[in-house]
Structure to design on (226 residues):
């Protein structure tokens, strides 16, 4: 069974950074890209970027360049996303999702990030 | 960037009814179109990919169609478990970019 298990919800101060994880199981981690998607009430669903774990290649939505950094650890089948210089606009639910080329067939349960002082 | 216009924003329908949700792309997306269902408190789930291919485990009452810039999701014989939000999503290859529609909230009448 394919499963993407994300880390827990985060409460962070403005200006800080947060790093979240997405542990994959039930498939060969290096066979698929891993994507990250933001969901906020005001902006709906937004694609942040993707990492291809096999070759450690990343692609980002221009909007999130400098905000998000994607990495992957093949030894633990885990993908990571770090968000930097957080503001209230970054408060949202963040999902990891397995990529099939044109769509996302499995999603993690989501991480709620709340940016507040 | 390609924009996706999804309609309607909300929809109320009766059990057993047929429901259609539409997405229009700002330019030709060559059937690189997926549909997702999201129930409150849950992650999105893939329903349709490549405009008209049913994802694994999805009931056959869901179907997708369209080409070029116009796409639709049809739900035949609406069931209570279909109450959810539905999103379309397009993909273009170079540079890689995925864009979602704003969503349709489906409720029971």
């Amino acid at each position: 069974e394919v499963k993407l298990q994300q880390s827990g919800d985060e409460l962070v101060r403005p200006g800080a950074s947060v790093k979240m994880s997405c542990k994959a199981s039930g498939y060969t981690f290096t066979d698929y890209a891993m994507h990250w998607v933001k969901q906020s009430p005001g902006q709906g669903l937004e694609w942040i970027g993707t990492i291809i774990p096999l070759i450690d290649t990343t692609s980002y939505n221009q909007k999130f360049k400098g905000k998000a950094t994607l990495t992957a650890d093949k030894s633990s089948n885990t993908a990571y996303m770090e968000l930097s210089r957080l503001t209230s606009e970054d408060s949202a639910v963040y999902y990891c999702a397995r990529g099939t080329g044109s769509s996302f067939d499995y999603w993690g349960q989501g991480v709620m990030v709340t940016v507040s002082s | 960037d390609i924009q996706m216009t999804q309609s309607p924003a909300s929809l109320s329908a009766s059990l057993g009814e047929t429901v259609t949700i539409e997405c229009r792309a700002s330019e030709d997306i060559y059937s690189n179109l997926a549909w997702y269902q999201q129930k409150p408190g849950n992650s999105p789930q893939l329903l349709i990919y490549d405009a008209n291919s049913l994802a694994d485990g999805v009931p056959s009452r869901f179907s997708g169609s369209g080409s070029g810039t116009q796409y639709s999701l049809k739900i035949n014989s609406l069931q209570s478990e279909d109450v959810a939000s539905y999103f379309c999503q397009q993909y273009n290859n170079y540079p890689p970019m995925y864009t979602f529609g704003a969503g349709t909230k489906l409720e029971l009448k």
